């Protein structure tokens, strides 16, 4: 029990961590292993449970070879918190002069958002040249915890770091979305996860033993940085973006240094971006109905209900209270809460 409390303790997790380096790969076999959340084996490194494959290749590659540009924008999130949506909104906003949202051949009409905005740590070594060839300003994404991003991105010494946009979501909805996604997507990785129950997922999630977990520590560290450096880290809440998408697109644009002009406002560019990136529109596109992207996972798996509170259809009140209590205990004294302040 003592070790679990220590694993979940938010104060401990957000203290400065040693910088990972290209040697992570060598110590992987000695790191704690978790194989119960399909489909990937996870290893506990620097207080977070991460896919073994990302630790072997992506993270060392990012730390040793990735060269951020001052104009880069990074979209960060814990998995199943609104990443796909944020990718679409940020890409459509930042690239609107080249790709106006009204265009019939807008990239989001024939590519999945995960193909428009790549994950940095996924196959970094394979996509290095591709990422380097992207025109500035680039928009890239990551599920890595803040403490595992290279200092060249977060800012160290003389460097002020890149802009980071983080999207967070209420833990019970994240858990249910992750669990359903796992069952649906695992077969693409050759794993049958039909017998993976919500009870098993809950236990693992409460212990932080899921991809990127503990979820609340992932969120907390980005939130703290957004309070410390609001000009560099923008913290968004999925639930609030759902309520006021246009206001959030304007906020996103201002933060990325490409605020909307009056003329654009008059032409309805903001609402066109929101419409283009809406769940209904994206889900209906041919590429998202029949295509596949990341690791061969079907694009349709990234678009489900996109609502607040769907956890209640899959979890009992007792299960919900258990997770709420774990999160409440872990966040005690941090000043952060998942309750929306809007
Ligand atoms: P990822 O981390 O694997 O990329 P991510 O996009 O963060 O996944 O999460 C998927 C969730 O975002 C799904 O939530 P649900 O399971 O509760 O329904 C998905 O439906 C939702 N989502 C995807 N696209 C949109 C969108 N355009 N608008 C609102 N929600 C969306």
TrEMBL record:
InterPro entries in the record: P-loop_NTPase (IPR027417), Sulfotransferase_dom (IPR000863)
One GO cellular component term: cytoplasm
Domain of life: Eukaryota
EC top class named in words: transferase
All copies of domain Sulfotransferase, residue ranges: 70-335
BP GO terms, sorted: sulfation
Record keywords: Transferase
Ranges for region Disordered: 1-21
GO molecular function, one term: sulfotransferase activity
Keyword Transferase part of the UniProt annotation: yes
Enzyme Commission number, as recorded: 2.8.2.-
UniProt-listed Gene3D superfamilies: P-loop containing nucleotide triphosphate hydrolases
PANTHER family: SULFOTRANSFERASE SULT (PTHR11783)
Family: Belongs to the sulfotransferase 1 family.
Protein name: Sulfotransferase
UniProt source species: Zea mays
Native organism taxonomy: Eukaryota, Viridiplantae, Streptophyta, Embryophyta, Tracheophyta
């Amino acid at each position: 029990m003592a070790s679990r409390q220590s694993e979940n303790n938010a104060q401990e997790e957000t203290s400065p961590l040693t910088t990972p380096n290209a040697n992570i790969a060598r110590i992987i076999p000695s790191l704690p292993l978790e194989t119960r959340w399909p489909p990937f084996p996870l290893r506990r490194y620097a207080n977070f449970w991460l896919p073994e494959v990302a630790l072997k290749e992506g993270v060392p590659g990012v730390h040793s070879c990735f060269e951020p540009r001052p104009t880069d924008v990074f979209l960060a999130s814990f998995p199943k918190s609104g990443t796909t949506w944020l990718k679409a909104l940020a890409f459509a906003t930042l690239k609107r002069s080249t790709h106006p949202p009204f265009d019939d051949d807008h990239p989001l009409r024939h590519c999945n958002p995960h193909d428009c905005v790549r994950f940095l740590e996924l196959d970094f070594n394979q996509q290095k040249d591709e990422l380097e060839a992207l025109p500035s300003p680039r928009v890239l994404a990551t599920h890595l915890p803040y403490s595992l991003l290279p200092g060249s991105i977060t800012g160290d010494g003389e460097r002020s770091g890149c802009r980071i946009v983080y999207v967070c979501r209420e833990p019970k909805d994240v858990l249910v979305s992750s669990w359903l996604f796992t069952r649906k997507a695992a077969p693409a990785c050759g794993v049958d996860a039909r017998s993976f129950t919500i009870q098993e997922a809950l236990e693992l999630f409460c212990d932080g033993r899921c991809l990127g977990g503990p979820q609340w520590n992932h969120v907390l560290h980005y939130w703290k940085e957004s309070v410390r450096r609001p000009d560099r880290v923008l913290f968004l809440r999925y639930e609030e973006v759902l309520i006021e998408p246009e206001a959030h697109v304007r906020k996103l644009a201002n933060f990325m240094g490409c605020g909307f002009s009056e003329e654009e406002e008059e032409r309805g560019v903001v609402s066109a971006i929101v419409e283009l990136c809406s769940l209904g529109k994206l889900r209906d596109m041919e590429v998202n109905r029949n295509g596949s992207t990341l690791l061969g996972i079907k694009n349709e798996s990234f678009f489900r209900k996109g609502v607040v509170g769907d956890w209640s259809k899959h979890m009992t009140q007792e299960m919900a209270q258990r997770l709420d209590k774990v999160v409440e205990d872990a966040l005690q004294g941090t000043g952060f809460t998942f309750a929306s302040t809007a």
